[in-house]
Amino acid sequence: MIPSLCCRDKLQDGGTRDEWRFLLAGGAHKPKELPNPAPDWLSDRSWGDVLTVAALPNFADFAEDFLNYIEGFERLFDSQEPHHEKLPGKWETDLDDFQKLLVYKCLRADKLTNAFQDFVANNLGQRFIEPQTANLNLVFKDSSPSTPLIFVLSQGTDPAADLYKFAEEMRFSKKLTAISLGQGQGPRAEALMRSAMERGKWVFFQNCHLAPSFMPALERLIEQIDPDKVHRDFRLWLTSMPSPKFPVFILQNGSKMTVEPPRGIKANLLRSYTGFTDDYLNSCGFKTPEFKHLLLSLCLFHGVAIERRKFGPLGFNIPYEFTDGDLRICISQLKMFLEEYEEIPFKVLLYTAGHINYGGRVTDDWDRRCLMNVLGDFYTPDVLVTDHEYSPSGIYKQIDPDNDHSNYIAFIKSLPINDNPEIFGLHDNANITFAQTETFNSLQALLLLQPKSSSGGGKSREEVMEDTSNDILREVPDPIDIEMVMNKYPVIYEQSMNTVLIQEIIRYNRLLLSIKSSLHDLMKALKGLVVMSQALEEMSNSLFINQVPDMWGDKAYPSLKPLAAWVIDLVARVGFMKDWIDNGTPPIFWISGFFFPQAFLTGTLQNFARKRIVSIDTITFSFKMMKESASDLKTSPEDGCYIRGLYAEGARWDMTESQLTESRPKELFTEMPIIWLIPESNRKPVLSGIYECPVYKTLTRAGSLYSLALFSRSPLYREVDITLVLFSRSFELEI
């Protein structure tokens, strides 16, 4: 919210609404098309943003002038702190601090959050970017018996301990009554509150979001508090996760607080070891050294499991809420097994921790494989050696078990605040992905806070929506004649691809019809010819902020692209289908262009099964990476098919060595070569040298499409952060 206020203040000084809109939502069209001048370091997506920003008046010649300062912009791109670098040429003086943010968004979106911090500090002051510590004493002074004090919970936080400590300081610990709300607790909570109002006690209602049925009653109780009759010492404390069921009246009339959970391996380790004592660390008899080693290893794994969540799908496909309870039960089991077994049962420890305690929360098979591989680096005989290193840098390591509790605390405090991706088993590029995600989430939050009426320079909302609608209507093609396609490609037993094509055309036609009809209705509504319905209102809001409207997304293929890139992608997909119709079955299939790729894969297997007269249930794919380019492969293979359009995330394919290898710095995605999908009956899997790589439709990694067996001579350090994603075009990666 602070960047929004700061930027709004600058916009009143002469900035334009169009520049602010580009910063938040991106541009809608490119005024000109120019080839990428530096494809070796500048991604096509970044170059597309450069072309798009040139539509703004203050950036009219930015794209052309970019060619004159290639070295200067490359220096900015390679810098560790690009927001502290001077822009090349006239752009350092011609652009103000706000307009420079647009350049950072084009070239280094991962550092835009840092640039925001500098922008706010320079214009509003340093105190607006520094975290504020929670002080219950200050909040309490501003409260009253009729004003509830509300803790808005974040994942991994519990303010109960802070409240109990504050109650002791205020000598109210014996007058504080806490109750965790849930089913059947409503009448008891109401009785406690009425009693506390009369006797001047404190009432602490925890987890209000778990008792939505009690919220109306709680709202009435607070409304009925008479400031003249209620005891002056009475206070009502509430905790709740963000919930639509929480009464607005209570929020408006209460004092709201929130506490951020500890972030980073260091903070998590410190929280874990704060609860230990020397007596506990030495409570395992003659196996105390092993217990100390494995305890540190287990606490470190707990921090890694929690912090991998910040990397989004790179960490786990699903963001699991691992808790301190998972760690506590693992520690209890560790101590029990050490005391009962002469030899350390690592297999049992791995199973109970990985498959039961932590694994009990894991619902995705690939996440389970990832979790077990990560746990295997921490629950192993190797960690029983002093100075064992958990990461290549050696920052995270075992220490001498003769150390006492204070030495362990000192060692933890010596660890860096900011974690290196290597401790998570991730490539350095993971930090870039995390920073970009944080930037886009911040911009999305700012976008939702914008008012629906515009002031200052630039076009009005109605003009922007009308221009966007006209642009889309011009670019999106008309539906394809399905009868013509069915006559040209009839359903026949020998060729299942004809059925796949017809099904794809039906799906695309449904989407194209929805786009065309809804845009025409919106244009009429903007002119006042028809009533603006709720659906059209939501659609117009999406067009304004460069997002795909829900009424289109519900009928479309999975995609995370913003609207402008989504339209280009749709046009390319329909073009692929038209080329198939006009020129016959393509020698190389663009798998990303399919509405439903699973049908295409099944059709390929079905063709092979009918040709060889074998059961389709016994057929699976083997894979061959082709060294030939698309221009060299003019005909389809005898069995199977060639596909293109897959991108690797977390690794790259080495064409020289024909194997998976590490990603290059700042190269988040790499295009895979053309792949030959070869159907085989009763194929025997290769047990060594093969990485089974999942394939997903989008970067959210939801619902594995299938897995691809890729050759890798040595096992890579990380596991499931290596995936293949169906991208439509390399210059429009999804966000």
From TrEMBL:
Tell me the ranges covered by the Dynein heavy chain region D6 P-loop domain, including all copies.
Answer: 145-258
Q: Which InterPro entries match?
A: AAA_lid_11, AAA_lid_11_sf, DHC, Dynein_C, Dynein_C_barrel, Dynein_heavy_D6_P-loop, P-loop_NTPase
Q: Which residues form the Dynein heavy chain C-terminal domain?
A: 437-705
The Dynein heavy chain AAA lid domain is annotated at 291-430
Pfam families in the cross-refs = AAA_lid_11, Dynein_C, Dynein_heavy
Q: Specify the protein name.
A: Dynein heavy chain
* MF-aspect GO terms: dynein intermediate chain binding; dynein light intermediate chain binding; minus-end-directed microtubule motor activity
The record's Gene Ontology cellular component field reads: dynein complex
Output one GO BP term.
microtubule-based movement
